Amino acid sequence: MALTKEQIAQRIAKELRDGYYVNLGIGIPTLVANYIPAGINVVLQSENGLLGMGPFPEEGQEDPDLINAGKQTITTVPGSVFFDSALSFGMIRAGKVDLTVLGAMEVSDQGDIANWKIPGKMVKGMGGAMDLVASAKNIIVAMMHSNPKGESKLLPACTLPLTGVRCVKKIVSDLAVLDVTPEGFKLLERAPGVTVEEIKAKTAGKLIIEGEIPEMVFN
Amino acid sequence: MALTKEQIAQRIAKELRDGYYVNLGIGIPTLVANYIPAGINVVLQSENGLLGMGPFPEEGQEDPDLINAGKQTITTVPGSVFFDSALSFGMIRAGKVDLTVLGAMEVSDQGDIANWKIPGKMVKGMGGAMDLVASAKNIIVAMMHSNPKGESKLLPACTLPLTGVRCVKKIVSDLAVLDVTPEGFKLLERAPGVTVEEIKAKTAGKLIIEGEIPEMVFN
Amino acid sequence: MNKQVLNATEAVKDIPDGATIMFGGFGLCGIPENCIAALVKQGTKGLTCISNNAGVDDFGIGLMLQQKQVKKMISSYVGENAEFERQLLSGELEVELIPQGTLATRCMAAGYGMPAIYTPAGVGTEVAAGKEVRNFDGKDYLMEYAFDADFAIVKAWKGDTDGNLVYKATARNFNPLMAMAGKITIAEVEELVPAGTLDPDMIHTPGIYIHRIFQGEKYEKRIEQRTVQKKA
Amino acid sequence: MNKQVLNATEAVKDIPDGATIMFGGFGLCGIPENCIAALVKQGTKGLTCISNNAGVDDFGIGLMLQQKQVKKMISSYVGENAEFERQLLSGELEVELIPQGTLATRCMAAGYGMPAIYTPAGVGTEVAAGKEVRNFDGKDYLMEYAFDADFAIVKAWKGDTDGNLVYKATARNFNPLMAMAGKITIAEVEELVPAGTLDPDMIHTPGIYIHRIFQGEKYEKRIEQRTVQKKA
């Protein structure tokens, strides 16, 4: 069974380590915040200018001056700090954010990522994605393994305009967990019930399979 | 009669315009603050991180956390702001400080200035002087016309290591007020009782004298 | 150094057709609502707007788009409104998309008197086209120039008559950076207080960067994505 | 994200001989007194110190000079003490003098992940020797690299256990810049409060830049130039 979006987020949450500062992109990455393991203390950075993002406010508590990078109303946790957009991307560029999680349309087996533009469609812009992928020490991509037409999104080379080059470190898709290595996608885990053969068939880029590939474990 | 240091400061103060942000260097320039003309509102910048510097504190009111760029205890005026050293030099570089007044060992008739280093003597450093002279829109130098040996300090070319090139706009010495023009030092005013001939004799750099040169007027 | 002007109308009255203007704000958060309204009323045209976003159909810069006052947008993320898309597709509107951090840092560079900065954002992408790439310590960076804007219009929470500004929460965003970057900077604030009222240790934008300030009125502060959870 | 350590001794104990350390402060204002004392006690040697000044004979970095712990000073203005001068003239101490704004901006560049910056300071002077000069819009600038320091040691007024810092008056100076620039940054504060106590709008250094924080003790805060006027 392919993972749900929630399960992708849940699996990514297992990559969090105590003390991490983490930037979560829009979409599935945002859901990661719901699955932070017990005993693991992480601080969420929102690139519009906040460290210490909390959950959505209770009804009636929304503050129009307090939003996240997805423009959603949010809250803060104790110890939070506000700052301007230059310092926000400054701390990202300086490698102070330990982990960035974001979505992708395509990832190449060299770690290139495309997630901002589809030629011929209305282009909304890259927002902070290019800064994040160019700067982050550790980037995990949350994505579907295939597009709605059934074509692989894990490719030998991206076909869409790039967001960044050789930057993705790990992918958690609905089918698998993969490391991006100099040799290609290295399969680490399978979604429960998904076979290595299915992953092979749905991965267009170079795939490395060594030994027994375990199923993901969810608590 | 050559001007006293206080009179040099007093003459420079007449260059202040309402609304100016001003950086005053150590020594004679600091004294300029004592002669700000009535009705003229200026804000003093101290490059260690303050806009809105006030006078020295009353005895017993000294705050070790509140000093100027000369490391003297000071006070603030209403509307003052503290900031870090990068922003302080940032606003200087960006041309937001309208006038910088500083001392000099030598000035060339091209506007070069030397004021930080005498070879063979212990070198203490340039502090913020190189930043100030390289960035300020308008630089007035407060200086003695000659050194203690009687040698001119207004030269065809500086002999000491430079602080900055082609940056000085005006000089107020103990003998004269001079503009630094592309053609050389242009004599504007004489100290009371000082003759044009004396100024000529004591100016080694190119001196331009056009028409009658008035005496300085002190109120 | 009193910078106070009467209102938005007075603050923007000398902004000419064809000006390049920075607008603070992220989405609809922290945008200078009063000045945008005054510019719409004034009808200034042919503007180049530097702003992270372009508002929505009926709010923010979207209001200026409706009036066809904007010639070019320089932004990181746009298109939350239909009129924007229509003008873009019809060729009436020019759009330059640049990474958000690059946008912010190019504002900062202007305020700090630094002519250019280096950032890795966009290396190897179409953003790098025509730009100088330089390697430092094994990593490639693009050289990006400081912005050169005629006007910057920002919104702060509190300000004093000397132009010192304090922002609230994530309404800070691009505002302090653009405040530093305009040849003329206009600040509108929710509360204008006399100079000397604000704590000098707690000012986000020193007044030296501000040329005009006024207390705005009737802030709508529209929320773009209202997300809430049920009361516990 | 608790960053609290017990005291200065614990905070500096892993600083090895030969380390490059930034020290916040301008003159004796806002210097990390406790950490300097701990380093003197620890006897760490061969240090390269990046600090705007070098203290006086019996205070600040001067205390480390007395113990011959410093190999090199990178500063904008030094020599307020006799021992410094003696070591410099005897060749025991190396000194690199750089403009104050360049010093500050090279710290900031490190904290902002910018490998280099451009500044006009020093163009045409001996400071420019060996440096790349580049002309932007008719004005020459020097390219200066971001600092690369093993440790930064700063002093703040208040801090919280997450490492968020607030500075007081002109004791801010280089502290927030160096705080951003150390691979490991140690902050000593006059008052350490629980995370959540400080106003999130009013924090000068976000805790993400801070690795260790402790409440210092017995601050002497020596005044270098006591200037006063008679009571009115």
Summarize the structure.
Chain A has 219 residues and is of the alpha/beta class. Chain A has five helices and 13 strands. The longest helix of chain A has 9 residues, at 5-13.
Q: How is this structure best described in words?
A:
- The complex is a heterotetramer, with two copies of chain A (219 residues) and two copies of chain C (232 residues).
- Chain A has 219 residues and is α/β, with parallel strands linked by helices.
- Chain A has five helices and 13 strands.
- In chain A, strands 4-3-2-1-5-8-10-11-12-13 form a ten-stranded mixed sheet, with helices on both faces. In chain A, strands 7-6-9 form a three-stranded mixed sheet, with no helix packed on it.
- The longest helix of chain A is centred in the first third of the chain and has 9 residues, at 5-13.
- Chain A is globular.
- The relative contact order of chain A is 0.16.
- Chain C has a single domain, classed as Glutaconate Coenzyme A-transferase.
- Chain C has helices spanning 8-12, 33-42, 61-66, 82-90, 100-111, 175-181, and strands spanning 20-23, 47-50, 70-75, 94-97, 116-119, 133-136, 139-145, 149-160, 165-166, 182-193, 212-215.
- In chain C, the strands form two sheets. In chain C, strands 1, 2, 3, 4, 8, 9, 10 and 11 form an eight-stranded mixed sheet that branches. A three-stranded antiparallel sheet of chain C has the order 5-7-6, with helices on one face.
- Chains B and D meet through helix 3 and helix 4 of B and helix 4, helix 5 and helix 6 of D.
